[in-house]
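Before we proceed, please read the two lines closing this message. Let me know whether the structure tokens fit the sequence:

…
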Amino acid sequence: KACSISAIRLRKLLKRWICPFQQLKSPPIEPQRSLKECYRKMSENERKIDELIQGLAKEVKPVKTLLHPALRVLPWVIVSLSYMAGGIHFLGVRYDFSDKMHEDTFMFEMLLVLCMSASAAYAAGLLSIPDMRAQKWFLAVPTTIFGVFMLWMGAKLAMDIGHIRLSKISWHHCFSDGLMVSFIPVVAIIFLVRRGCTTMPGWACFMSTIAVGGIGWMGLRLSCANDHIAHTFYFHYTPFLLLGVVLGLLAHRIYKW
């Protein structure tokens, strides 16, 4: 009898604690969607994606892919050398041209500048492609040749430093001749690089300056008979240094996408 009374009391106590929780109603559970409805939703989404793709495809215009950099640079080389030859004919070939063709130092300088200009033009063509065709290492080639050329100029300057008279250096027509000889090549190479999308405008301007400067340097050296280092440095080198400074300052504007 005592056990039955305890069981009754325990039952009442549990009801007193459990009933409030039973009165709380759980939120209604949404019925699961049928498999057919899911397939219908999926087909609608796919149809919308197809319509989006078709709408975007209608706005796409055909784009002509760029040729290999060597094929793109070849016309620039032909035009630049032809223009340089015309400039030399207009300015007049130096009187000792035949003697200079047998001078080793002069021929070394001409070949060095020609290789520098050609490699820099090819590098400019590579730079017009965003990834440079995975040939970023090629930038070291024209840069190295340019360094050798500067060492060559420095050695000549050091050997003749005692004979330089700055007071006798005045304006010379070679400065304006250098700008004239390099006008068409610089316009052509800017157009060549702008046909692409370079991601390194600074390097593009540097390579363009080296390429154009090499053409102009050869044109002046083949038309001007003055081999004095002060003359060649101030009136043959300074025009292209000035060109490089201008292109460098305007690099992001000239070669913007």
Observations:
- Residues 55 and 207 are 42 Å apart (CA to CA).
- The radius of gyration is 38 Å.
- Residues 1-5, 20-27 have pLDDT under 50 and may be disordered.
- The chain is about 75% helix and 0% strand.
